[in-house]
Amino acid sequence: MNFSSINGIGSTSNNFDWRQGYHSGIFVYSNIGDRIFFQPELLYSSRGYEYTKQYSEDKAISGDTLQFRQNMKLNYLDVPLLIKFHLGKIFFEAGPQFGFLLSSKSRDEYLLNQKNNAVKVQSGYYSHSVIEPIDIGFVAGVGYQMNSGLGFNFRYNQGFREVVKRANWQKNVLIQTSITYTLGYRAYKERSTGNTSTDNFEEYFDLSKARRRQDGYKVLFKQNIQRISVVKVGEATRSEVQYVFNSIGSHTPSNVLLMGTSGFEEQTPLYKGFRDIQVPFKGGVRFSTKSSIGSGTIESNLELEISKPGIWMVTILTQ
Questions:
Q1: What is the pLDDT of residue 10?
Q2: Could you tell me the pTM of the whole model?
């Protein structure tokens, strides 16, 4: 839902009122830090304003106008570029917004005094030529994001440019309430939280259900890791844990730090890990990767426990 009007010089004295509209569109949700996300959007937004001016009977324009009302409907293609900060399920968002005028239409209504009788006259016309084609503004908002993907938010948008050309610096002002749904958000939360249940971890190998859930290991903690697979690849009297990174694009892990309660650390061109471990073995790995939009780094952490001897391969998919 949209609630739009005009503010700026002359907007108070000239009686601009709020107009109700709507918005609809799509967005992309990408993490650039532990709690910070970048969200570009593409929205169709119905905005505008209502304007009313009263005239006294003895000072009416041309001696006959008692009241003038204008309902201006403005349709924009809005492109907000937002940074979101999450505190649990509550989030705050802010960023610039660029609006591209798609259409505009004005409906004017005159109340005329004709021989002491009030007569209503209406007219409508397309006003695209008198409206600025591009609107630039700033968005700030707060919202609530559920793990199911359903979200609710409240936004305030202030325009920086004139709406009507040469109209005393009057700017768009917009209040929005939204219901959103983020595809894949439930799976993202399960991958990014430290849930100890391996049933919630989505693996990317084509393994059978039984093999994916075999006994012998337990994930203790997982943070900022896209997907993992823990597989016992062989029997051995001298047990090993091998960490293999499967990188996509430029997101190659750096600053890799291994941790383990026993064994000897080893690094080969194919994997990093520990040999000659004693079970039960508790270990993990910490590393850094570039964020999804290339600015800044993301710190990732994985901790697990191996309870059966053998050669274990832990494959980590980085973003």
A1: 57
A2: 0.57
